Structures are given as structure tokens and as C-alpha cells.
């Protein structure tokens, strides 16, 4: 069994990844609450945006041009998809809404493989505006700028989105649509405009997650897509696709637990199962609590 000193560096990396999962999970929750659509193309959109940023930076353009291009690309693609297919999905069942974005994800997969083919088993990489230098050290923990920004972004996005949904007029409209779309429309709320804002916000967060995760690991489309989608979806499910604070906490736990398994050689090959296992445990506990509450009320 590794010593405590072996685990300490992975607390930092786990919290940083948890911050990325948190802002991704928040994007999924906001879109789902406003439209009922579970955006399974979230990771693919962010991955392609990151590849575009890589190409722009590699061509000799300023780094910030690539970062902005990544975020704008993800926002525009998601918004266009929502404007074209969103109205048709509004009247469909939950299953159709949940898997509707898989087609977009597959198209982006194909585009990435076509435009950025892998050569020699190596994947391209990009740099965020920070570096790997240490911001501060605590005990034996060293925190870099990238890790600090990733965690702070998750906190800011989660807190800001929660405040936005609670106090802004647009956020109130999104919460109302989550309860009943038809009644909200009859009250004069511009449903299409609210849905468009939700799609755009989800896309911008996808681009931000893609550029951040690409800086923390190899820029590989499969890694980006499945790391972001699976972990952030697990966090959103633990939050029952409604609660942003629970989604944020679940994302941090998933990131930390996943990375803490790295020094344990016996379970390291299975650490990618962490989001699934934690989501299943949480859902079983919550469903058991709901059943017990219902039985007490009936009794």
C-alpha cells in the first residue's frame, strides 16, 4: 500500500480535474433543465474546439486567438444545433431527447479524425496562458497555475450559474421551463429565446472545458470526449440533473477519488470506472432514501 506522501500530489490534480468536471456538469444541468436535452456531444464539441485552437496557435497566431476561437466555435456549433433541432426535440419523449445529440458527437468525431490524423501514436498538445510553475506549496503539495485556475473556474462557474438561475430574469425563466414548458410559454416567456441562451451557455462551457482539459493532458479526442462526458455526466446524475451545488460537490469527489487510485497498482487499471461506481452508489442511496420517505408518508 502506498504511503500518504504518495497520495498527496494526486489530491491537487484530482481537485483540478474536479473543477473541469464541475463546469462541464453545470453546463449539462442548465441545458437539461431548460430544454430536457442531455447534451452527449458536450465533450466532442469541446475537443474539436481545442483542436482548432491548437491549429491556430501552431500557425503562429497569438495564443489568446486560439483560446477565444475554441470557446466561440463550441458556443456557435451548440447554438446552431439547438436552433435547428431544439424545436423538434421539445415535443419528443425523454429517450429521444437524451440520445439526440449522439449524432452531432459522431459527426465531430469523424471530422477530428479526418482533419487531425494521429501520426506515430503521438497527439498534439497546446498551452494555456499559464505555465507549470508552482503558485504555492503546502506541506508536500505543489499547486501550479493551471491547476489553480481549473479549480477556481469550477467554483466561479458553479456559484455564478446558481446565482444566475436564482436571481436573474432569464434564469427564472429557465427554472420555470424546467417545471412546465407549456405553462411557461402561455405566461408570455419567449421560450425559443430562453432555449437558445441555454444552448449557447452549454456550448461556451464545452469550449472552456476542452481548452482546460487539453492543457492538463494530451490533446486526444477520445480522452477529451470520454473523460469530460462520463465524469461530468456522472456528477450531473448524482445532482439528479437539477442541483448545481450537488453536481459541483460530486464533480470534485469524482476527480479526487479517480486520481487517488493512481498510486494503488492493484486498482489503477480500473480507475476509469470511478465515475460509474460513484454515480451508481449515490443513485442507489438516494433512491433508497426516497423509498423510505414514501413508505413513512404512506404509513
Task: Please explain how this structure is put together.
- This protein has 299 residues and is mainly alpha-helical.
- It has one domain: ABC transporter involved in vitamin B12 uptake, BtuC (Orthogonal Bundle), CATH 1.10.3470.
- It has a two-stranded antiparallel sheet with strand order 1-2.
- Strand 1 and strand 2 form a beta hairpin.
- Helix 1 packs across helix 7, helix 6 packs across helix 7 and helix 7 packs across helix 9.
- The longest helix has 32 residues.
- The chain starts with a helix and ends with a helix.
List keywords for this structure.
299 residues; mainly alpha; ABC transporter involved in vitamin B12 uptake, BtuC; two-stranded antiparallel ribbon; 12 helices; 2 strands; globular
**Helical amount:** over 70%
The rounded Rg comes to: 20 Å
Residues in β-strands, percent = under 5%
Ends distance: 48 Å
* Architecture per CATH nomenclature, i.e. the level-2 architecture: Orthogonal Bundle
How many strands, which pairing sense, and closed or not: the largest β-sheet? Answer: 2 strands, antiparallel
Task: Report the count of strand segments.
Answer: 2
> What is the top-level CATH class?
Mainly Alpha
Mean pLDDT: 80
What shape does the CA trace take? Answer: globular
Q: Largest sheet, order of strands side by side? A: 1-2
Instruction: Show unreliable segments.
Output: none
Pattern of helices and strands: HHHHHEEHHHHHHH
Q: Based on helices, strands and strand pairing, what is the structural class?
A: mainly alpha
Put simply, the count of helices is 12
Number of domains: 1
- Give the quaternary arrangement of the chains: single chain
CATH topology: ABC transporter involved in vitamin B12 uptake, BtuC
Amino acid at each position: 500500500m502506498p504511503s500518504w506522501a504518495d497520495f498527496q500530489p494526486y489530491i491537487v490534480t484530482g481537485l483540478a480535474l474536479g473543477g473541469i468536471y464541475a463546469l462541464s456538469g453545470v453546463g449539462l444541468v442548465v441545458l437539461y433543465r431548460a430544454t430536457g436535452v442531455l447534451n452527449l456531444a458536450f465533450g466532442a464539441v469541446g475537443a474539436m474546439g481545442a483542436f482548432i485552437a491548437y491549429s491556430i496557435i501552431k500557425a503562429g497566431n497569438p495564443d489568446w486567438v486560439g483560446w477565444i476561437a475554441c470557446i466561440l466555435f463550441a458556443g456557435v456549433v451548440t447554438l446552431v444545433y439547438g436552433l435547428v433541432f431544439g424545436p423538434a426535440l421539445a415535443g419528443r419523449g425523454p429517450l429521444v431527447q437524451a440520445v439526440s445529440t449522439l449524432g452531432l458527437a459522431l459527426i465531430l468525431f469523424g471530422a477530428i479524425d479526418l482533419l487531425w490524423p494521429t501520426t506515430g501514436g503521438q497527439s498534439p498538445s497546446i498551452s494555456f496562458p499559464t505555465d507549470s510553475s508552482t503558485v504555492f506549496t503546502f506541506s508536500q503539495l505543489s499547486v501550479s497555475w493551471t491547476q489553480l485556475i481549473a479549480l477556481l473556474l469550477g467554483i466561479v462557474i458553479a456559484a455564478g450559474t446558481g446565482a444566475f438561475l436564482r436571481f436573474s430574469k432569464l434564469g427564472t425563466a429557465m427554472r420555470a421551463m424546467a417545471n412546465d414548458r407549456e405553462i411557461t410559454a402561455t405566461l408570455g416567456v419567449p421560450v425559443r429565446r430562453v432555449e437558445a441562451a441555454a444552448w449557447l451557455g452549454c456550448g461556451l462551457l464545452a469550449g472552456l472545458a476542452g481548452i482546460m482539459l487539453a492543457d492538463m493532458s494530451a490533446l486526444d479526442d477520445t480522452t477529451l470526449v470520454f473523460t469530460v462526458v462520463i465524469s461530468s455526466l456522472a456528477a450531473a446524475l448524482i445532482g439528479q440533473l437539477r442541483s448545481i451545488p450537488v453536481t459541483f460537490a460530486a464533480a470534485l469527489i469524482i476527480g479526487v477519488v479517480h486520481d487517488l487510485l493512481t498510486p494503488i497498482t492493484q486498482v489503477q487499471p480500473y480507475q476509469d470506472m470511478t465515475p460509474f461506481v460513484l454515480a451508481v452508489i449515490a443513485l442507489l442511496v438516494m433512491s433508497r432514501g426516497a423509498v423510505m420517505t414514501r413508505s413513512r408518508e404512506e404509513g
